[in-house]
Design brief:
The protein is an alpha/beta fold. The chain is built from 12 helices and 14 strands. The protein has 2 domains: 218 residues, Alpha-Beta Complex (2-enoyl-CoA Hydratase, Chain A, domain 1); 71 residues, no CATH class. The strands form 4 sheets. It has a 6-stranded mixed β-sheet, with helices on both faces. The chain has a 4-stranded mixed β-sheet with strand order 4-6-8-9. Helix 5 crosses helix 6.
Length: 325
Amino acid sequence: MPGCVRVEMEDRLAIVTVERPDALNALNASVLRELSMAIDHLSMAADVGAIILTGAGDKAFVAGADIKEMVGLSALEMRAFSEMGRRLGDAMATCNKPIIAAVNGYALGGGCELALACDIRIASDRARLGQPEVNIGIIPGFGGSQRLPRIVGPGWAAELVYTGEMIDADTAERIGLVNRVVPADRLLAEAKAMARKIIEKSPAAIALAIGRIGLRDGRVRRRRLDARQGRGDAGVHRETKARVDRGLTQYDSNSSCKSMTTCSRTSSNDELRYSRIPPSSLWIRAMKLFELFRNSTFTRDSSMTTRSWRPMGARFHSGVSEVPI
């Protein structure tokens, strides 16, 4: 692959190398884009059983985001850059092939987050890891704030993020940030040996195990945030209107009261839908439920048939709906 990312194949093992040794393999827009494309391609390749991710040279795995490039970015450009890092994390999280990080040196900031998005981390005895973003007034932006507590626990994650300090390979192994520490000259050989052990196993079983363990998936919280921010106000308003049309009352951002969480089962499938209901709307909801039951008849199988119901402020079709009792 041309550019800053090199992909080599050895049987069913793909070795992905970030090649910017003059910049300590720092992540710029080109590297993020090429890494995302490489991971997406390898995830769909039938002849790939495992992936090793490492950095060129013996000084750095990935020393972080390219600060020189970030300095000249506007606020909107910086947000787009952060989204590229998140998309790379998403590509790695959805990859059905095991990813092993061979941490051969500095893994700081975005580099540490890149290692966190892998399933297994093997570090050389010269590796240094950390999340120093607070030193320049920002926080981890590529998913590290979600993945790091899952791997090392909230206490160590808080210390690493709040202080911005680096830790050596032995400390990283002790707290569980890396799986093992090996001599620098044996790093790639050890990573290949572990990858080949995995390749010998059933690909279907490995893919299922990746989904069940889910340590590299930091997307759950981000999807919740995207529902409020990433899709824009228009998308949020459309979703709010759709929920109101289904008879659900969402959380009222203008209310200072605490809210209750309720759930209802959709008629088309068994998916549970959750909504936030402030106390100010509980009386209205109670009246709607009373009206629903008053205009309903019950059948032998403990379901009810709605004859007609037109609550205040919403349009509903008259018809039959099955509601468990």
